[in-house]
Amino acid sequence: MRSLFAVCKKEERDFVKNAAGSRDGAGVVPLARRNLLRDRTRLLISVSGVALSVFLVLLLGGFEKGMFRQITAYLDNTPADYYVAQVGVENLQGSTSIIPREDTLQRAREVEGVISAAPVLAQHSVIELDGEKVPTFMIGYEPTEGGGPWKLSRGRGVEAADDVVLDRVLARRHGLDLGDELEIMGRSFRVVGLSDETTSWMLSLVFMRHDTAAALRQAPEATSFVLIGVDPGSEGVLDRLHGALPNADVLTRQELAANDIAYLGGIFAAPLQVMVFISLAVGALLVGLTIYSATVERVREYGVLKAMGMRNRALYAIVIRQALGATTLGFLGGIVLVVTAGRVIETQWPQFLVVVGWSSILSAAGGALAMALIAAVLPARYVGSLDPAQVFRR
Amino acid sequence: MVSVARRNLFQDKVRLLVSTGGVAFALLLILALDGVVEGSLTQITAYITNTGADVYVAQSGVRTMHMSASALPLTAADEVSAVDGVESVTPILYTTNPVESEEGRSLAYIIGFHSELGIGGPWDVVEGSADLSPGEVVFDATAARRLGVGVGDQVSLLGRSFVIRGLSSGTFTITNSVAFIRFDDFARLRDLPRTASYLLVSLEPGIDPAVGARAIQARVPEIEAMTRGEFEAEEGRVVRDMTAQIMVVMNGAGFVIGLIAVALTIYTATLAKIGEYGVLKALGARSDWLYRLVFEQALVSVTLGAGTAVALAYALSAIFGLVLPEVPLRITPTSIAKVAIGGGVIAVLSAALPVRKVGRLDPATVFRR
After folding, report:
1. pLDDT per residue of chain A (394 residues) written in tens, 0 to 9
2. How many Å lie between the alpha carbon of B206 and the closest alpha carbon of chain A?
3. Which of A136, A274, A375, B100 has the fewest CB within 10 Å, making it most exposed?
């Protein structure tokens, strides 16, 4: 964007320099800037519009990135190298995996290099809190084997059959605290712990004992996944696991995480892209409207410049610089807005994570540049087709 | 008065076009998001709407299907059958699992149903048949096309191979597709010989579903009995509650951007004609008359923008229907009403700035320019 500014500036400067007969550029009139700043209210409105467009683009991207990070939190924080799942199941989210518990555990534990095998029964469940439907991902785990909450903000892990660990944010949103009771799938539970980093806007993790989860599911002999820990010095464990478990699939943590992200990305990609496109279009139209109005307002002056011999290229440069100026201001405003909004969201609605990285800002900058160039098309055409003689006749 | 406001607005067609576009796209933000949520609701409740059951019975504490698991002992079916007014009870099994072909995989709701009874299965079979033999499946037609398979081809699900016997329509959602297999196949593969996920209950003719559901709930312990309408509403609430806060943010942003677009248009249009306003004032035009002039421009601008937004939303919906059938965009009268009300508020607010400018205008200053 900076180099485009420089080129446009040079075109404009060259003309004014020549017209003034100046050799050193002294006394150059910054036409684009003056035109843009002449009506500050108009500029402020249009910059606000662009800022909101950029804010929306960054916010939508930030939501998506944050969602991916939240959705793989369990996989990222559970110390397992491999996951044994039902044949064909390649996701933690989305699919329901059912495998025989004891047989799978026994076979896995016998594999050379396997140092731990923990059963985890995972299933979605919608619970009702304060009259609100709350989608959860229930994790049934063995307290002695692992696979439970990795970070507790308060309380403890589950011990008794009716113990439950709730996500801290979920509990706060619904006024629940340690010792409170709640109903899940028709059974009463007592909150014994509040976990951290276990929520997203889509669902929150709820931890309970494995046998309790199996009873709720009416599948006492089953589990969903077996989490495998391997001896770091051991090689070929994956192949041996495949051999020992012919009726199950064995996936790495990375594979499961990538599949979950691909699945969710597939769901949200199209609606997100539509929203981003609409936001950019609005931004371009608002800048376009401002620059067009500023150009039409100055039609006599443009006519004079043309009559004095200013080439169309130089006139286009003035228009483009105005568009770039308004867009740059709006872009900066958009970044400030998204950073501020991110902080507010973090406090007010912590289930939403907004991740705005440099790559997102660069993409938004690309979008803003496109916005400015598109916005300059109509005013540039208008100036290009201007007949000085007609202007003077007005 | 009318002609002055309109002429002011329509005199510069390019500006009008750009500003209408700005308002339209801002309002389209609201309509598109509403459309996706409403469309998803229709998709997600499609199965519940189309099975033909009057009452649904689930595990106690389970009142939804999407993102849920329900397990009932099959003996519950006998108990429900014995309730007065119940004509038939059909158990189904349900889980979420991938359907795989050589070309790829599609996450699907797998429904195990009694194909011989014709209840709980696909409601719109577009090719082949839903009369299943063991090892056969009815799969969604769009998902099948994407996986490069058709009737007679093999896909694998629940860990074994199935032959596609039929293709169904209306069974593809933003999150997954639907595959129907025999109840006994499902029970065997999942080792669930004495379990059902849900019971689909048909009542005798003339029985009010609400009365029937209450009777079942009272007679059979440890279950949830809901009418079809209640079950659909519960399912809808999952989506609405999940997306409620996102809707607030997006609708708010759409509204503010729309407001900015109209404010900019009316402001620039007023400013461009400030000389004429001065002349009108000098000729004795009263301030309230001039204010109405400005407000009418705002209203016309918003009306044009809102109309274009609705047209664009319908166009987008049609394009999505053809290109991305899994992403539904359903424009409802409620969404249109929301945009109309929002547009009205935008028109009033956006006129504030130019009204101030016109109000403070001193005709003498204008003539001095």
Report:
1. 455 555 555 655 555 555 444 443 344 557 777 777 777 877 887 788 788 888 888 888 888 888 888 889 999 999 899 999 998 888 888 788 989 999 999 999 999 999 999 999 999 888 888 888 888 999 999 999 999 999 999 999 999 999 999 999 999 989 999 999 999 988 999 999 999 999 887 889 999 999 999 999 888 889 999 999 999 988 899 999 999 999 899 999 999 999 888 887 777 777 777 888 888 888 788 778 777 777 777 777 788 888 888 888 888 888 888 888 888 998 999 999 999 988 888 888 887 888 888 888 898 888 888 888 888 888 888 888 888 776 665 5
2. 31
3. B100
Instruction: Answer yes or no: do B253 and A56 touch at CB < 8 A.
Output: yes
Q: Cα angle vertex B140, ends B137, B145, to 5°?
A: 105
A46 CB within 8 Å of a chain B CB: yes
* Token representation of residue B276: 């004429």
Backbone φ and ψ for A369, nearest 5 degrees, come out as -65, -45
Cβ of B18 within 8 Å of Cβ of A59? The answer is no
In chain B, residues 276-305 whose CB comes closer than 8 Å to chain A: none
- The rounded distance, in Å, linking the Cα atoms of B256 and B250 is 10
pTM: 0.77
Q: Are B36 and B43 in contact (CB under 8 A)?
A: no
CA gap B339, B351 in Å, rounded: 18
- Check if the beta carbon of residue B36 is closer than 8 Å to that of residue B320: no
Of how many residues is chain A composed?
394
Inter-CA distances, A381 with A15, A296, A327, A372, Å: 19, 11, 19, 15
Q: How far apart are CA B33 and CA A11, in angstroms?
A: 44
In whole angstroms, what is the distance from residue A108 CA to residue A100 CA?
12
Of A49, A183, A187, the CB nearest to B261: A49
Classify residue A112 by burial, with Cβ atoms within 10 Å: 0-12, 13-18, 19+.
exposed
The residue assigned the tokens 């289930």 is A351
Contact B103, A239 (CB under 8 A): no
Contacts with A274 from chain B: Cβ below 8 Å? 32, 316
Separation between Cα atoms, residue A393 and residue A384, nearest integer Å: 18
Q: Decide if the complex's ipTM is over 0.90.
A: no
* Strand boundaries in chain B, DSSP class E: 55-59, 72-73, 86-101, 104-113, 125-128, 136-140, 154-157, 160-168, 177-182, 195-196, 198-203, 223-227
Distance to chain B for A82, nearest Cα, Å: 19
